[in-house]
Design brief:
heterodimer, A: 204 residues, 2 helices, B: mainly beta, 12 strands, 4% helix, globular
Amino acid sequence: MPQQLIQFKESASQTAGPYVHIGCTPNFAEISGVYEEDLGTRMLIGDAKGERLTIKGRILDGTGTPLKDALVEIWQADSKGLYNSPSEMRGSSDPHFTGFGRCATDMASGEFSFETVKPGRVPFPDGRLMAPHVTFWIVARGINIGLHTRMYFSDEAGANGEDPVLARIEHRHRVDTLIGKREGDVVTFDIHLQGDNETVFFDI
Amino acid sequence: MSNRKPETGAFFQRDRAWQPDAYTPWYKTSVLRSPEKALLSLGNTLSEMTGPVFGHDLLGELDDDLIHNFAKPGESAIGPRIIVHGRILDERGKGVAGALLEFWQANAGGRYRHKKEGYVAALDPNFGGCGRTITDEDGYYSFRTIRPGPYPWPNGVNDWRPAHIHFSVFGHGFAQRLITQMYFEGDPLIPLCPIIKTISDPAAIDQLIAPLDMANTIPMDASAYKFDIVLRGRRSTMFENRMEGN
């Protein structure tokens, strides 16, 4: 008998439920006086470098109805393509930019919104550069395990054309579901959970 | 945190058969909120291997004390006082230091403090229901709270959630991001719950049930439950692909 491979199993995910705001954005849930500010409210701390952008959008269910109880988190590199993370080994990221944002979708309109900077390009493991992108993680009532996706930028057609991740999408019309539409300083990104326009989600 | 070198390897792939499926029609809301197309498998890139890490300076003094963090001075929340503690580990059994945990729950009567919630059980004026903490060097955490009550919800005509505490966990990489729920040993509602039944493997369900921990119970004060959470492990970086020229 060889030695046994001993490995624990990852804890199973469960839905965040409809009251995720109580724990993750208590001030948004009108539970004030416990935390000074909800985590991930501000991505720009002072004078962050780079092009300022607003990213906004909605999460739509299989009937096209916006989710009014979702929690959206984003994670992205700074304007030079560096992550504000201890496992970033390539250099120091902009200290005025957190890279992490969290937003509850509006209880009336279902819209989320982030004030951020446009990320720089980050290398794929083989050294090729990926196109500028923002990682999204979505949880809500009815979602049993958080959904990962990416948003790319419509004003980066050249870089998107050589992106090694987008290149892996077999059904080419689905690439469009990952492209945020940029108009001026606003990038709009709607996420479709299900159906004909279903957004590409990743098993990362 | 420490002068331990940060780990930078790719995360072990997620066992999607162990994790709940997206489409679980007995949990009705999942029907229209589950993708129909296959997930696109993506080996980790820097975008998934990195993640935000939060310092202890984030925490307020009462963030890990739900009995008092919403209570008026000199008062406390009503309900059975409990301590919940445990370790955040990865799949290799290593403690995850500096992990941010956020938790939320209903009060002792099963009522959440949320404006979309209309259950007839009363709010407790001294209970908010949110807390957070960060694990120590070895991955340990603890907080104190009151034991939440079970809670009816409009799924089937008579569905009740078992007593539970929601947990949100940040490890060291965004790929480790996890939200789950803790249940209490011996609760007869556990096998009836459609949300728990989204997990098909009974061993995966057992892993979410916290045992009563008499050794850590404080006599005449609070009983204790032990709840460990396992996050994805990661490979050593020794032979990872390196970028050309680096």
